[in-house]
User: Fold these one by one.
Assistant:
Number 1:
Amino acid sequence: MRILFIGLGSIARKHLTALKSILNNSEFYALRSGINTDDISDVNNLYSFDEVADKFFDFAIVSNPTSEHKRTIERLLEFNIPLFIEKPLHSSVDIEDLVLAINNNGIFTYVACNLRFLDCLNFVKKNIFNIKEKRLNEVNVYCGSYLPDWRPNLDFRKSYSANSEMGGGVHIDLIHELDYLYWLFGKPVEVIRKFKSQSSLSISSTDYANYILDFNGFCASIILNYYRRDTKRTLQLVFDDETWDVDLLTNQVVTQGQIIFSSDQRIADTYPLQMRYFLNSVAVEKKSMNTVADAYEVLKICLGK
């Protein structure tokens, strides 16, 4: 199997590690931004789309900066190969023409949202609608972490996350939280958004985002930030008779002080699971749980349209 990476940053290297743990006798290529980029073991560097066109690839992984996704995917359409696209789909909602082109050409797409493979969220998805006697009144989502800790060896102010012109911002970086709510509950009937950039980080991108999603029966509140030192990532489901507290970092669900679900899995373990899903979907299932059309709906929830 021959696999093409567009971009080979930190997230792409997680996908590369996952692929190496699954596949044998595969060839890996990466379209790099310049000849001075660092070499990665077992990866062949390419420096132009002309070099890409000279080879056949089984699929491509789009993992360059978010703001470059549209231009990259447009170039890849001519190769008519499956696309594994790192979230988010793009940094702008002005891509309806691209979504239509992908659909019209029958290109297989999967937009990577690895939290869909986290055990505690799958427990919620499996059980939440099986509890007929319970009424869901309220959902609260929180994800706060400290951006300088994300990439300790780099100046965080130079990262795409910190720069709005590169497509960065906490609402985009942590679109996972919006994605899993869409996965659990579908499309909301109304969305209210509030974005701010005024924390002590002093960055140009959004460092605080607050959403209210109306699901016509209950509302979900989502708070995202880049500046919390003690990382917290939770989902709370408030029923009429009890509350489920879901901790994504410990992979547990607790209600009334009792653990009703627990897993040793950690978020890092979801990357190989996600890649196995993608490979099986391309080869066997022939359908994707998160196409560009799905991801476009989440992007519109995120950014508005």
Number 2:
Amino acid sequence: MPIRTLRTRIAAGLVAAACTAGLTTAVTAAPAQAQNFTTGVYSAAMKRTIPVKILRAANGSNNAPTLYLLDGLRAPNDNSGWLINTDVVSFFANKNVNVVLPFGGAGTFYTDWQRPDPKLGWPKWESFLTRELPAVMKAKYGSDGVRNAIAGLSMSGTSALNLATRHPNLYRGVASFSGYPLTSQPGFAQGIGVAVSQIGGDVNNMWGVWPGGSWLANDPGLNAARLRGKRVYISSGSGGSNIDPTKEPTKFAQLVPLEVAASIASQQYVGVLRINGINPVVHITAKGVHFWVDWQNRLHEAWFSTLGPSIGA
């Protein structure tokens, strides 16, 4: 087998596995606070109501900045992995920022699909996240409509970078935790297709038939120059861990190879950003696996180094 073909297949397999991000180990949630609530936001683009968790700014401001926090590949329709598995509620409880966590979006890459899908319907998440939801946040929930940032993990780390790249006038800061921002590259593109199929969708309905359709237009790496002047945070581990594959083979197979692919993609993307005059905050380490405890820690770091400063919070 040619080396190039072998590398492509390896990359595809790793990305498909890594995008799952459905590894949920519940932790004890912080007590709900009065200013935190779940509401329904109607999407005209998708012709349905999307549940959204909103953590209001601690100072009760009606002119606050807003952070949009996206979920992973297996995002449930009635909750968010961030709420299930991290301290996001308590962490932001004393911070003057609205944090918005939309529910659902499993397997959609939070993008506008070209065609309806027999399993996933007709996802129009880009329209919802960049037009409909921000308008509601400004009209009803105290967003100033100007100071916005976005972040995500695994599948949605890719999505956050893509949305920030495609809508640079909307977001001032963006963070990707274990994302895959080289979406149209051989291997990574095929991995995305396999990941979507794990949720039952057909990736050809998303961006068309690779490498045509809108694959190139939705590749953060190819369009990195649009992030000039923005604050960017990129993180991943490299799969190093204390997990013994002989004693915990399933856990090892789920958590370690996943982060290897994220590391490869993230390191290449950082290089592309720097070539384009963008100096991101980078946390790529030899250790670290595809798991919520790492993403929680990186969210904390990204907030203080990048996301918070980008929106003045």
Number 3:
Amino acid sequence: MIKKSTIIALLIAIVAMPVTAFAKKKKTKEKEDKILVVEQVVVEEKDIPITNYMEQLNGEWNVQEIRQNEVNLPRGSRAYLYFDVQGGAIYGNTGTNSLNALYSINGNKISITDVITTKMNGGYFQNVEKDLLRALADVNTVALTQVGETEYMELKNKHRDVLVKLRRQNLDFMNGPWLVKKINDMNVADRDIKMVNDVEMLTVNITSGCNIINGVITIDPMKEWAIEYEDLKSSHNQCPNIDTETRLLIALEETLYCRKSSATEVELYTKETDDMGNIVDKPLVVLEKVRI
């Protein structure tokens, strides 16, 4: 016969078991939470005072949001505004039509007037243009912010509501002539392959020492450093180094992003999945700036 004290001890042990297990699970969860907090990287948004219009406003800005709604356009299309500070003018595109306007600014007060566009029919996406034009008509102030290395412009109404949010075109460093230094880690600088990017006109021109190659640059304004090379057309001459040219064309067609690796070098790369299932950068082409 089991003693009464033994039964009581067993009952206490059974009741205590789930409590202990829960305590261990809770402790593990707290530990996981702490790890997550440590690994999280928080990039703060900073307000940037406007002190120099030429340095801070001049240039191309991609339209990201209109009245807090993200701009969605077909692939290859984008809405942007180019502020010509010296001329007091704005040039750009609504995603459907070219746009021209005048503006005046004093401090952070800005007025956009005389807006005109071309008259192409954008179908369903014409709504983006209509929303943008209505918003520009109500713009009263401008503000600049920065998140990491990315600069944003906010055009607001008199109530300080954000009407249009734009991101500075961050691929200006890709403009101009480059020497193709490496293709898939193979040094080809001695082949004298030149590449000229025109980010504003969205074109690329390549002289391979054998053929002349022309193509189109596509930029995704919603992605950082995104650049693609498409419709690459060669003059199709057969030369001794045609294999190098072919490798370059394949690498350019695979390119998804670019990165400034130094003051004089840029790296083109794509994304791939490694053996552990992680998405990593795959370098494709290294370009070296050509001094003019």
Number 4:
Amino acid sequence: MSKKITLLGSTGSIGTQSLDVIRMQGYTVFGLAAYSNIDLLLKQIVEFCPQYVVVVESNAAQKLGTQLLGLKNPPQLMVGKEALVELAALQGADIVLNAVVGIAGLAATLAAIESGKDVALANKESLVTGGHLVTDAVKKHGVKLLPVDSEHSAIFQCLQDVHSAKALDKVILTASGGPFFGKTINELQNVTKADALKHPNWSMGAKITIDSATLMNKGLELIEAAWLFNKPCDKIDIVVQRQSIIHSMVQFDDNSILAQLGVPDMRIPIQYALTYPERYKSPAPVLDFKTLKSITFDEADEETFRCLKACKKSLKKGGLASCAANGANEQAVELFLQDKIKFLDIGRVVESMVDHIQVKPDYTLAEVFDCDKYAREYVLSQI
């Protein structure tokens, strides 16, 4: 059955791979949203003919508007952050795939859920910062929240049998270890932006690649897993799996373990979220065991990579501590990419933020954004 998809973050790594899946499955694109990459967005518009398009950055939107005048049936162009939320809520799509990076995706996730649409979630920050706001909305509106991150998709796939889901004892997240696996604190003192952007297995945007290098990405996934699968921090383990072949595992009450394996290609989890519960041919290549020489496992070093330690602390602390960790990290990564702080400063300020913040168990959406702003200001005060 053909589906209509709204894709938020269409010009990013997840967005372009999502369109590979949409193209192969013959799905219809209802809406596309991007921040400012109008050259790629225009090509996507010409191919997929969406009814609605959002460009967040106003100058880029103005340029695209001029270019759209040359199209026979141009989409309706919407502009700004508010338009992103409006598009997520528009009736006409069957599912919203949220591939926006950062806390900017939270309001759109909530808008899609509250409008009664299923959400394929690649924006982990929605759960990291919004927590119970998102899970409460899912329950209230009776929609599906389908994980797109390869690790959470792997866990989700391992739990499709209802009896298995009831017997889940522990979640085991795998990590690639990033480009600095095995490095000591001394060896990381002077690593550069270029060094940190060289991921060994995955092709991703700059922010997520830096998060992988600091292990912040794994910390965020730990928090996301806690919300998705209703498990406390001590029931979620992290192991380094350098080849990125085992995408995550689940351990049951009888101590048996199931794992989901595949090549490191995001189109596999993207497609499962869009086609769920069915499986179809994928644009991703097949895992060839004859060429796979070994699968290794190591311990994640959270003393060196303090972002992971900070995320564990935030999850145990509760309230908006994880939101604060995320906001501090987003600000710190931005500063690192601008060559204003060193690599190890990222983990230092994120952990400091988590230690510093005072929390309460409940919160509103407005308080989420206030906390995010406070965390960013805190980081700027520490440099």
